[in-house]
Amino acid sequence: MPDKDSKATMDTEDTYGGKASSEPQNLRPRVFHSIKFFVLCHSLLQLAQLMISGYLKSSISTVEKRFGLSSQTSGLLAAFNEVGNTALIVFVSYFGSRVHRPRMIGCGAVLVALAGLLMTLPHFISEPYRYDHSSPEDMSQDSEASLCLPMTSAPAPTPSNDSCSSYTEAQHLGVVGIMFIAQTLLGVGGVPIQPFGISYIDDFAHHSNSPLYLGILFAVTMMGPGMAYGLGSLMLRLYVDIDRMPEGGINLTSKDPRWVGAWWLGFLISAGMVALAASPYFFFPREMPKETHELRCRRKFLADASSPVSKGENSPSEQNPGESLKKQDDLVQIAPNLSVIKFIKVFPRVLLRTLRHPIFLLVVLSQVCMSCMVAGMATFLPKFLERQFSITASYANLLIGGLTIPSAIVGIVVGGVLVKRLHLSPMRCGALCLLGSLLCLLFNLPLFFIGCSTHQIAGIIHQPSTQPGLELFPGCAEPCSCPSDDFNPVCDPSTRVEYITPCHAGCTSQVAQEGLDKSQVFYTNCSCVSGRGLVLAGSCDSACSHLVLPFILLVSLGAALASLTHTPSFMLILRGVKKEDKTLAVGIQFMLLRVLAWMPSPVIHGSAIDTTCVHWALSCGRRAVCRYYDHDLLRNRFIGLQFFFKTGSLVCFALVLAILRQQSKEAGDKSTTSSPGLEQQRLMLGPKKQPEDSSV
In terms of Cα–Cα distance, which of 38, 69, 8, 49 is closest to 616? Predict the structure, then answer.
């Protein structure tokens, strides 16, 4: 979309430079008239923006536990980041250079920072987190309230009834609504940052330095998601109420399933980084002197490769800027002079004309499938690893931020290098996309068999045909009158059977043993345990946690292979549409990816995850967060969704390659019977057209 701005201002670049140079530069520090400093500032801003946008995905399971959300609701919350972005992204292509771009970027960044602060508000307006709801508020948590005490059978449900007041429900809805509003504002604030920044760099950088600056910008920006997961790994090691710890402390560790980390602290840190990165943009001029010198490192490193690109970029202006603009048809030529009403009227016609192109439509559909896979994996992979392999949220984020995200970055870079160094034709770009999708699909198959089955949980009935319910083992805990909504899991180490609470295990006493690094809590005299033995506080350890490393390595390898198709598929779009439609084609591509992939995919994955739940926590009669999943069903459905989207992408790329081969065959047949001039009009054929295409 920023290409439109650069094309529209191609014939006025010298004028920009003249205007800016004639202004007195003593009004601002000299550094704000340097495009290099703008590239540095914009790299840091986009890095911070992607951190705050991706941070929710690293703490999605923690937010679910803290506020009692289902995976479908949390997926919808994550998708709302794209709602505001999608609603406004088309109009950004219209405004282009009509506005003060640095100030618009700064205002958008300030809105992103305010939205990040708004995301932390639910923590401060909510009551402190109580991980043991069976204890009255004036008693310490993990007390005798969760033990088997027959005399408490009558008043047991009283706290639950009191907690279901209309005020509590209204407060819950208000907290969730605040998070949805904050996510929407995050998307709205991010709209002007990337398009305006890229077009500003392209307008005022030297034509030979612009690709290098944009490469540096994208390289720094791609580290944002990895840093978001790293930040989540650090913050989730801290207790959620670190700013208001109870007097007696807490008896939880990060391995306890009731543990909730300081999810809000990451938003606070990210919002501060965005605010700091936004401050320089209010001092940049609307137009700065155009860079006149090529970087020496650029000239030395890309002397052989940049010459055709530079010629391709300079040729229109060297011939005649007016003639080059006259040759451009329809929208690009008149877009700078269009009113908003005319722009809205013209846009559907260009949209339909672009969607009728088979190559464009199939490539976009393949990218939609890939983006659905990526969106679902990025949102729920940390939670999947937590549940499937019984690891902490902090460790899951560390694995993703340290292995999966860097692998995807390497895949994108390798794909771009292959296209550039091997000078891949559209046919070979399609073949590379097909190969990457096929290998990614093959590496997905072993993931169906790497995982842990659900360990035995007393009273949980696995019947997919009926509503999962809770049924106590007969006799052993009937006199205890255990509250049904309590959750304080304990484990019988001899049989590896887990009980929802000590009360459900029939335990009547509690013993705390001090260790070297932490205290271990035991529950004794348990009627449901053989020999009335003891049980340990906390869930049973998984017997196959060591499989998480092979699993994440295969996921990372698949991510690298899927990312390999990013640059070749993008080049197929640029070379597969009319020259006058390329700018809006890219904008339509990103709009369709948001509407068809990034918005629905987290909700689809969250709904699929919810169907594998076997025991829900209830809050005022409604389903809240899921306590236990069927691990085998969870793995099959989560990986199955990934397999489905990867298969769709593979089929689309296969059709693209088939169409390209058919067009090449038809063009070859016509070239033998007609004039050679017709061959150059075919899609993506002829060596004479390659320099022009590669310069886009």
Answer: 69
